[in-house]
Design brief:
The complex is a heterodimer of chains A (216) and B (223). With 216 residues, chain A is an all-alpha fold. Chain A has a single domain, classed as Orthogonal Bundle (MetI-like fold), CATH 1.10.3720. Chain A is built from eight helices and no strands. Chain B has 223 residues and is an all-alpha fold. Helix content of chain B is 75%, strand content 0%. Chain B has eight helices and no strands. The termini of chain B are far apart. The chains are: A mainly alpha (216), B mainly alpha (223). At the A-B interface, helix 3, helix 6, helix 7 and helix 8 of A face helix 2, helix 3, helix 6 and helix 8 of B.
């Protein structure tokens, strides 16, 4: 029987961790772009649009990521789109991220004083111009720490994609455990890898928050 | 699109779904109560004067908050038996949920405790109250009132997160959904229904916890 050294296990986990990182980045970037669109609709001066986006956010915040994954995984093929675990994972995590980021950013936009909207409206700026030149630059400043903080949730969210068969670090851990029978060591290392990925993000979110509080 | 939705085939599986919902609710109930209990103890420890204790609790909080729940669950269920701790599925699930919620609740409750005006603590001390009395009668109530909405959100996140417990064969709601779709080959309908049930549970839980918060911390929320 082949004996697995610690290095065998760790190197394979690290190779799989690339996919965790890549999926996190894709979900965060695409989710961020989609999140901006959701946000713009969520605070638009058009009630049906606002209500629709409110429901969208409620839906993603009120249901498990696992169910969202399953629905994307099984529903996309019904519409004729070939779905690999990769696509399903990327699509589901993007939608999930967009809903949470839009809600976080809405709080930041609403923290911009009402008078700023009124002042810019009295200068005859359109909704788009108000957003672009007056509100978003101010909202962006306070949005950075919670956004960085949420990225930790995205990285941790990728673990659930192992359940639909996407081979990232958790799935690799399960596969390696099945070969080595050392679950304590392997899952310990998997946890450690996530910690190494997430802790710097948590720390920088906290540092950014502190800096912002001092600046005010 | 030629696909025809057929929810009728789900009717036969009502008992399975009911069982699933019951288990999810049960897990959340036990996990929620014990997790908040750990959170209160952890927050008390983090605001105590004992530096090693503060460090230990801080490490626990950071360790849990920076790793996925699924990995924590696998570590407890698959990893701990090699250390001689063998837990049945549902006990492993409850333990993972309690440990997970405990870490988040510690951090949330600590924020509430930090927001206690110093004068109130001094007023308590000048009335001759001991440290634990001050914590119990002056700090904790208003702190819980202040952070109750955040704690509510976290309990709901843990409830939704419990869906991954299906992976260690705990017969909760998503386990029921997996079971049904493996029998009737209607994955979309089943997962759609399960998702709707989760949404309903989340809305209901938010409502119940809001009522509970009103009742327990009335007046406490106003600072």
């Amino acid at each position: 029987m082949y004996n697995f050294t610690l290095w065998d296990i760790l190197s394979n986990l690290l190779l799989a961790a690339r996919w965790t990182v890549l999926l996190s980045v894709i979900a965060f970037v695409c989710g961020g772009i989609a999140g901006i669109l959701v946000l713009l609709a969520r605070v638009a001066p058009l009630r049906p649009l606002r209500t629709a986006m409110k429901l969208y956010i409620e839906l993603f915040q009120g249901t498990p990521l696992l169910m969202q994954l399953f629905i994307v995984f099984f529903a996309l093929p019904l519409t004729g789109i070939e779905t690999s675990p990769w696509t399903a994972a990327a699509v589901a995590l993007t939608l999930f991220t967009s809903a949470y980021l839009a809600e976080i950013w809405r709080g930041c936009v609403e923290a911009v004083p009402r008078g700023q909207w009124e002042a810019s409206a009295s200068l005859a700026l359109s909704y788009g111009e108000q957003m672009r030149y007056v509100v978003l630059p101010q909202a962006l400043r306070i949005a950075v720490p919670p956004t960085v903080g949420f990225s930790v949730q995205v990285v941790k969210g990728t673990a659930v994609t192992s359940i639909i068969g996407f081979v990232e670090v958790t799935k690799a851990g399960t596969m390696i455990t099945n070969a080595t029978f050392q679950p304590f060591l392997v899952y310990g290392l998997v946890g450690l890898i996530y910690f190494v990925l997430c802790y710097p993000l948590s720390l920088s979110a906290k540092a950014l928050e502190r800096k912002l509080n001092v600046a005010r | 699109m030629a696909y025809r939705f057929d929810f009728s085939s789900l009717a036969d599986y009502t008992p399975v779904l009911v069982q699933g919902v019951a288990t999810t609710v049960g897990l959340t109930l036990i996990g929620g109560v014990l997790g908040v209990g750990i959170g209160i103890a952890g927050a008390a420890a983090r605001s105590s004067g004992n530096a090693p204790l503060r460090f230990a609790v801080g490490s626990y909080v950071e360790l849990i908050r920076n790793t996925p729940f699924l990995v924590q669950l696998f570590f407890i269920f698959f990893g701990l038996p090699s250390m001689g701790v063998r837990l049945p599925e549902w006990q492993a699930a409850v333990l993972a949920m309690v440990i997970n919620l405990g870490a988040y609740a510690t951090e949330i409750i600590r924020a509430g405790i930090d927001a206690t005006p110093k004068g109130q603590i001094e007023a308590g001390a000048s009335l001759g109250m001991t440290g634990p009395q001050i914590f119990r009668y002056i700090i904790l109530g208003p702190a819980m009132g202040k952070i109750w909405p955040a704690l509510t959100s976290q309990i709901i996140i843990v409830m939704l997160g419990s869906s991954v417990c299906s992976q260690i064969a705990v017969d909760e709601l998503s386990f029921a959904a997996n079971f049904i779709q493996s029998r009737n080959f209607r994955p979309f309908e089943v997962y759609f229904l399960a998702t709707a049930l989760y949404l309903a549970l989340a809305v209901a839980l938010r409502w119940v916890l809001a009522r509970l918060g009103d009742r327990m911390f009335r007046g406490g929320a106003r600072v």
